[in-house]
Structures are given as structure tokens and as C-alpha cells.
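Bumping my old thread because nobody answered last time. Still need a sequence for this structure:
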């Protein structure tokens, strides 16, 4: 029994969203698919941490890349550089 009422929770114990992400990555289909899923999940979590709408950012980023965004300016598409 825990006699310390103000003891903080263990790291990850209350991070349900991350646990769901890890569980869903098992269905990626291959090692390459798992790496791609991990990259996408990381970017989406970065959006949330920076108060950026993940859907809006992903739409802009993928649209820009599809329209041949210059690779020298790829840093402008990182979630924390996103301007709504």
C-alpha cells in the first residue's frame, strides 16, 4: 500500500494516447511500415504539443511535398514552424 498521498504517477502510466499509438503500430504490416507509422505518430504528437491542429498541418505538409516543395526549405514544414 502506498503511504505517500502526493507521490507522482509513474512515467507513462497516465499517457493513454501514447499507449494506443504503440498498440496500433503492431498492425503496420512490416518493419518499414512500422518505421513510417512511428514517424507519422511522432509528427502528430509534436503538433499536439505545439498547439497545432494535426489535420491542418498534415494537409499542408503533404500538399506542399506533393507540389514539389524545395528540399532546402523542408524545415518550414516542421510542426513547430507551422503558421495557421
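Sorry it took so long. Here it is:
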Amino acid at each position: 500500500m502506498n503511504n505517500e498521498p502526493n507521490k507522482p504517477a509513474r512515467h507513462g502510466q497516465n499517457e493513454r494516447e501514447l499507449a494506443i499509438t504503440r498498440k496500433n503500430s503492431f498492425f503496420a504490416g512490416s518493419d518499414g511500415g512500422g518505421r513510417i507509422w512511428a514517424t507519422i505518430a511522432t509528427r502528430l504528437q509534436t503538433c499536439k504539443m505545439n498547439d497545432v491542429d494535426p489535420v491542418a498541418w498534415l494537409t499542408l505538409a503533404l500538399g506542399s511535398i506533393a507540389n514539389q516543395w524545395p528540399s532546402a526549405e523542408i524545415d518550414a514544414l516542421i510542426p513547430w514552424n507551422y503558421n495557421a
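Helices lie at 16-25, 31-49, 54-66. Let me know if any region looks off to you.
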